[in-house]
Write a structure and sequence with these properties.
By secondary structure, the chain is mainly alpha-helical. 82% of the residues lie in helices and 0% in strands.
Length: 518
């Protein structure tokens, strides 16, 4: 069944249902960070188990992406999406009802596996459901659901944790996925590869192992530092396995066999530029989302709900940008749109790096809105530039490749900027003359530092901790801004200009006329 025979409204309604599922999967990446203190008491979890509450989901999500794409291409993308939504809903309920930490971790692994299939199938279904002219607008909606989950997680989670039982953080996913299942079942046509791809078992194992090892190394770098032997070992092992996987895939392609992924996609400047720039843009967004909640909760003493509400300007900017991105790209071209978005993101982050203890909410709302606007404009355009190169035949695996690279952005952002902040904070806080154990406690985090100052009844120490943290936050935001600026020449060099966008607009107009006339 060809997708273009389906009513126009049906395709967009289907996309709405898919986007709801994506939103649920994305929320689970960020919402848990606010719930960890509550979970520690509710599940009697130790520090190591709390770490795995977060890590288990991320690693499962990373490991399952390419296999999920292959399964969708072989068995049917609609079928895999429906199963993934059902498993995600059941696993969410499992998290809420978990009697202990071990069961909770197992449920988080199941959530990650299902989430991987959901995000990959969503993108591959878009490739099949919409032609090249409609795809940028569809990807803008996909981007809104996919990327808005990052700031929305702390907002939703903060409100629930402040007003409801902690299990609602997960139970809320159940009705969301039910709506998604109904929409997909009723409105999405089944699609699969015409020539069912052979299973590249070695490629499946290599890609999953390599991505998992590398992601684990990045997560550990954010927790214990880049110089830790375990971190270095995991990163090196991940790089080596990924390199071996790439060599194997190229060998299969050269002998006429079907590799797991088509690495020739990276020969396309639009695909390579889109994927890399999406990862770079989300790195900058991660800088904002990683640093600000610590400022609001640690320095300003807000609760989870108060911190979450202050992220609303970010969401507002991203919503506006995601809606307008495809129209702007048609007028001025993808390269100018993306470059402008990255510059807006950098301007917002750079302005944020000048904040002080005296900065008010209006100042923060202004620069975070600009940052969200730039991030939304850049991320939607970058994803569209990458996806325009994909065909329906193997959209599952190709979409998984796009997602696997993009998902490294937030992990790198948290790890790199976390290291920068930790070092800057340790060097900035004044601990001269204090006992060694007290100094180490104060330097470990802003929360520990303020607790120690409060216990000691020292306003001077508390002020030193706050000033050191604000200075460290400024350093992290400046680095995130530099990363965003570094993407501008990449966008100008690799992405298509106005002529390509205008051609797409013409195709869109002709397609719309054909539908109306038919």
């Amino acid at each position: 069944m060809t997708t273009m025979n389906r009513p126009v409204s049906g395709r967009w309604l289907a996309l709405g249902g898919i986007s709801l599922g994506l939103l649920a999967a994305g929320l689970d990446i960020t919402v848990l960070s606010l719930a960890l203190p509550t979970l520690a008491g509710a599940l009697n979890a130790n520090e190591s188990q709390l770490q795995w509450f977060v890590t288990a989901y991320t690693l499962a999500l990373t490991a399952a992406m390419l296999p999920a794409g292959l399964i969708g291409d072989r068995l049917g993308r609609k079928r895999v999406m429906l199963v993934a939504l059902a498993v995600f809903g059941a696993s969410s309920a499992g998290c809420a009802l978990a009697p202990n930490a071990a069961v909770f971790i197992a449920a988080r692994v199941a959530l990650g596996l299902a989430g991987a299939a959901m995000v990959v199938m969503a993108l591959s279904i878009i490739t099949v459901l919409f032609d090249e002219a409609e795809r940028p607008r569809a990807i803008g909606i996909w981007g809104a659901a996919n990327f808005l989950a990052l700031p929305l997680g702390p907002i939703v989670g903060g409100w629930m944790l402040s007003n409801l039982w902690w299990g609602w953080v997960f139970i809320v996913n159940v009705p969301v996925v039910v709506v998604g299942i109904l929409a997909v079942a009723a409105l999405v046509p089944e699609s699969r590869s015409v020539n069912r791809p052979a299973i590249d078992w070695l490629g499946v194992a290599g890609s999953s192992a390599g991505l998992t090892l590398f992601m684990y190394g990045v997560i550990e770098a954010g927790r214990v530092g880049w110089g830790d032997p375990g971190t270095i070992g995991a990163l090196l092992a991940g790089v080596l396995v990924i390199a071996a996987f790439a060599a194997w895939e190229l060998r299969l392609a050269s002998t006429g066999r079907t590799p797991l992924v088509d690495l020739s996609l990276f020969r396309s400047p639009s695909f390579t530029g889109g994927v890399v720039l999406a990862a770079m843009g989300i790195f900058g967004l991660a800088g904002l989302l990683f640093t600000l909640p610590q400022l609001w909760q640690g320095v300003q003493g807000l609760d989870a709900q108060g911190a979450g509400v202050r992220l609303l300007p970010v969401i507002g900017g991203m919503v506006v940008a995601a809606v307008l991105a495809d129209r702007v790209a048609v007028r001025v071209g993808a390269r100018i749109t993306l470059a402008f978005g990255l510059l807006l993101l950098a301007a917002g982050l750079g302005t944020g790096s000048t904040l002080t203890l005296a900065s008010g909410d209006a100042f923060t709302a202004g620069w975070t809105f600009v940052s969200g606007l730039g991030a939304g404009l850049g991320l939607a355009t970058a994803a569209s530039a990458a996806m325009v190169e994909l065909d329906a035949e193997r959209s599952g695996v190709s979409s998984a490749l796009v997602q696997a690279v993009i998902k490294l952005g937030p992990a790198f952002g948290a790890a790199v900027l976390g290291s920068v902040m930790n070092d800057a904070y340790r060097n900035g806080v004044t601990v001269t003359g204090l006992p060694a154990d007290l100094a180490a406690t104060i330097q470990s985090s802003v929360f520990a530092g303020l607790a120690a100052a409060h216990q000691a009844g020292s306003d001077a120490l508390a002020q030193s901790v706050k000033l050191a943290f604000v200075g460290a936050l400024g350093d992290a935001l400046r680095i995130a801004a530099v990363i965003a600026v570094a993407g501008v020449p990449v966008a100008l060099a690799l992405l298509p200009g106005r002529s390509a966008s205008a051609a797409a607009a013409g195709a869109q107009s002709g397609h719309d006329r054909a539908i109306v006339g038919g």
